[in-house]
């Protein structure tokens, strides 16, 4: 499933979405555009389906703020999976430490976001106020990754309005048991948005 975009969304949607979640939260919403590139440098055999093995995307947020997003899946290479937020007077990688003009270190118990999320959900249910306030946020994060992927695949700047109004549908025409439909590897310069 991983190697087929219609199932995984490519590596940016399948894995890197969690980092886009955090940055969208820091920025207070999704980006306004994406300018991306990438390709297949290592996983070039047809057995690797139609996803890419590397992407680099400049996400622009309101106010002229830019996020440099990079991801790659290459065996036997150094890999990194983290966020870095750099401002004019400080920076953080989200690990409980801010460096710069106003340094700060979290001194409380280290709790993973997933643990905190579950505690909040359980408490809301126990208090008779169950909620699911992440639906819009999750949809925006997913659409952020799709916007970045489609910018890479097409070689074009994709705006939030364009991706929000797109009719792009990656689902095969017929879902049935048997050989998976073979789709070409995306080549920049060929349109995909409908």
Automatic annotation (TrEMBL):
Q: What is this protein called?
A: Gfo/Idh/MocA-like oxidoreductase bacterial type C-terminal domain-containing protein
Q: Which InterPro entries match?
A: Gfo/Idh/MocA_oxidrdct_glycsds
Q: Which organism is it from?
A: marine sediment metagenome
């Amino acid at each position: 499933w991983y190697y087929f975009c219609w199932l995984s969304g490519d590596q940016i949607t399948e894995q890197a979405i969690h980092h886009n979640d955090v940055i969208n939260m820091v920025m207070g919403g999704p980006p306004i555009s994406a300018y991306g590139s990438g390709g297949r440098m290592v996983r070039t055999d047809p057995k690797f389906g139609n996803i890419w093995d590397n992407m680099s995307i400049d996400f622009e947020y309101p106010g002229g703020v830019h996020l440099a997003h990079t991801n790659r899946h290459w065996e036997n290479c150094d890999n990194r999976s983290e966020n870095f937020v750099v401002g004019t007077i400080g920076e953080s990688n989200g690990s409980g430490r801010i460096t710069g003009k106003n340094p700060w270190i979290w001194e409380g118990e280290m709790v993973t976001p997933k643990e905190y999320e579950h505690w909040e959900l359980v408490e809301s249910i126990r208090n008779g106020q169950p909620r699911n306030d992440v639906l819009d946020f999750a949809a925006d994060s997913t659409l952020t990754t799709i916007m970045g992927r489609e910018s890479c695949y097409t070689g074009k700047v994709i705006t939030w309005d364009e991706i929000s109004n797109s009719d792009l549908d990656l689902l095969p025409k017929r879902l049935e048991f048997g050989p998976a439909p073979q789709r070409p590897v995306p080549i920049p310069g060929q349109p995909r948005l409908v």
